[in-house]
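## tool: complex_structure
## caller: assistant
## args:
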Amino acid sequence: MLLFAASGLAQYRLARRGVGGDALAIAFFLFDVALVTVALLAPNPLLSTESFVWPPQMSFRFGSFNYYYILIGLFVLGRYSLRAMLLAGFACSIAWLVGAFSVSTLPGTLFAVPSFDDPAARMERFLDLFFVSLDLRATEIIVMILTTIILATAVARGRL
Amino acid sequence: MSDIAQDTDSARRLEARLNSAFQTQEREGLRLAAILRAVATAAIVVWLFILLRGGG
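## result:
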């Protein structure tokens, strides 16, 4: 959390000295995205004890992806650039994709969902602690990309 | 000929002013973002403290 606050302060201090540009904004953004991704997907020490280990696959059950929208919102406050905006959105998507892939490749992860013919089995799979929904991950990423394109359009229009 | 030169000069000055305005806006935005980050950090630290004391 302190690193997250320090990153914003450092970027503002540099801007006050006249240091800026898309490359620097994106560099800071990549740092923030990496920080948030690790914080969201790394095992939570408060949830596991010696007798019970919380499955890492459960990290996807808390709607954590929403926090990336805060990053995108903060980014658009400080950088009015179409290119930087698009890169920021894609950085979030790639980070989440990498995070989802790394958690999903852990042993025991379940992806397959039984057909609609067997609703009970379907529900059982959704409630399984080791189940990761690829459909939801795809939806999160698609919505992020669409939102970014809309924001980038607004930024580009603002600069005309 | 001089009209064209004047127009070009005027457009250049306008663009320079716009760029300067954007830079000021971006700097102000970064200041606001830094404040919001600090507030969010403080709020989450307090929330964590409450969670840990209350056991969730």
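## assistant note: DSSP finds six helices and no strands in chain A. The radius of gyration of chain A is 19 Å. Handing back to user.
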